[in-house]
Amino acid sequence: MKTQILLFVAAALVPSVLADAPKLNQYGSLEDCRNDKNILYHAAPVSGRCYNIDNATAAFFWNTGGMLNPRVFTGSDCNGIEDPLSTNGRCMEKGQYNSYRCS
């Protein structure tokens, strides 16, 4: 009986784990980001890899997918001033940031 309950709970959790994939989407405006429309670029970030944010991007959305320590950088190639992000993804104006990395 305990095995059946454990299998049921594990099966119930699988969709939520799969839905929480890492994501870095870039948009031309904050409104587009909030409405998830007119996406400019999409990446499924890999831990430790740096992603440059395009100059056409006005806002971006990130989801860590369980990775910790998301960071944005003022310089490209993850150089310059580094600022932490929440592990809970959301839309954010690009502002001064030019690159992103999560580990």
Automatic annotation (TrEMBL):
Cleaved signal peptide residues: 1-19
Signal in keyword set: yes
Keyword terms: Signal
Name the UniProt record assigns to this protein: SSCRP protein
